Amino acid sequence: MSIAGLLLCLSAGPLHAAPAGEDTFVYTVKRSDTLYGLSQDYLTGPNIWRELQAANRVRIPRNMPVGYRLAIPRRLLKFTPVALRVQTFSGPVAVSGAEVRKGLELAEGSVITTGANGFVVISGADGSRIALPSNTRVKIGQARKYLLVPAIDIELQVDRGKAEVQAAKQAPDSRFRVRTPVAVTAVRGTVFRAGYSEAAASSASETIEGEIAVAAAKAELAVPAGFGAAAKAGGGLAKESLLPAPPLADPAKIQTDLRVAFDFTPVEHAQSYRMQVARDAGFLEVIAELHAQRPHAEFEGLKNGMYFVRAAGFSAAGLQGLEEAYSFRRQRVGLAADAGQSALPGGFRFAWQSEGEGTSLFRFQLFGASGDGLPLVDEPALGKPEMTITGLRPGAYRWRVGVIQTTPDGSAQVWLPFQKLTVGG
């Protein structure tokens, strides 16, 4: 579909004498249609035919030519609600001030707000899916199915933050739109993002799959996959290619530290980054998010298990780049150790303590001062968190302890840094 055709769905241009700026639907007259019958069965009142007759210059309401095109204001169309429901959520999420719950149905006018580390996914009866990340405010403007034709009309108003949308393929007369204070994005079945920054007073739309149409006060653009469009309050639009996804520096790393930490490779021209952790590869269950100037993120409080992480860079225009999901395993393994003299003459006792779940086996190594060559002592598969060594000659030594911890998800190994031990004469 051309940009003009797609934007016609965005704000269908009036036919005949429809009022300027009126949000209209174009209906093609069929055999036996009359203005009386259409008003009675499909419009909001039996006398609406008079308004349509005047606006469309219909001479004989009972005898309209087949194929005649009527411009009908959408406000006059009868409809049934399209169910939009909360599919999943985490963190601080509110719906029009009420408590949120899974399965909650969202009526037209509902306002969904997410706080810091608040996330919610909304699913539509048409198969569409809308993910709202942290610090976002979205209003359900329209969610309706018209009776006159099998058409669905969904409109979201993003006042703050971003909506990440996977729109179902739209029927010819259906439409899916996302509005911000400075732009409107229309789609016909695609994956895209549309958001608004209050601080910058700008809108950003990015296409992941398919094509979107973006309109501002003074311009309109077709935006294919891999591109985005930024709109300012003045009404202009600027299109640019999206930044590539930042690669994860060590994707095979098992996350054993107290904090889960990630380093991504910087992307040229990126001004900032967003990094997210989710329970699923589709990022429907996002549980943590961080915005930072550099591609490094640390998260606290993640329990053991399998997760997914992704990052995106933001351009100077505020457009969010592409993302690639990586799986990782979280297995908290902590280890602390100390050394001191034992009760045995000339003996030294080494003791350690592990943190984490599962079965632990320890390994103790003792080297000469340089730490080079073969260890003087190498004891693997120790079940007890201690051992005593006697007969050490005077001098400097280096020692360390490692642990292999095994859970049903697998094993992880952690080594403590080398520590020094000096034996006097």
Give me the CATH fold name of the largest domain.
Jelly Rolls
The best one-word shape is elongated
Strand content: over 45%
Question: What is the number of E strands?
Answer: 33
The computed structural class is mainly beta
**Largest sheet descriptor:** 17 strands, mixed
CATH class of the largest domain, named Mainly Beta
What's the number of domains?
4
| CATH architecture descriptor text of the largest domain | Sandwich
**Roughly how much helix do the residues carry, as a percent range?**
under 10%
Q: Determine the mean pLDDT.
A: 90
What does this structure look like?
The chain is mainly β. It folds into 4 domains: 74 residues, Membrane-bound Lytic Murein Transglycosylase D, Chain A (Roll); 162 residues, Jelly Rolls (Sandwich), CATH 2.60.120.1440; 71 residues, Immunoglobulin-like; 91 residues, Immunoglobulin-like (Sandwich). The protein has 3 helices and 33 strands. It has a 17-stranded mixed β-sheet that branches. Strand 5 and strand 6 form a beta hairpin. The chain is elongated and about 115 Å long. The relative contact order is 0.08. The N terminus is likely disordered.
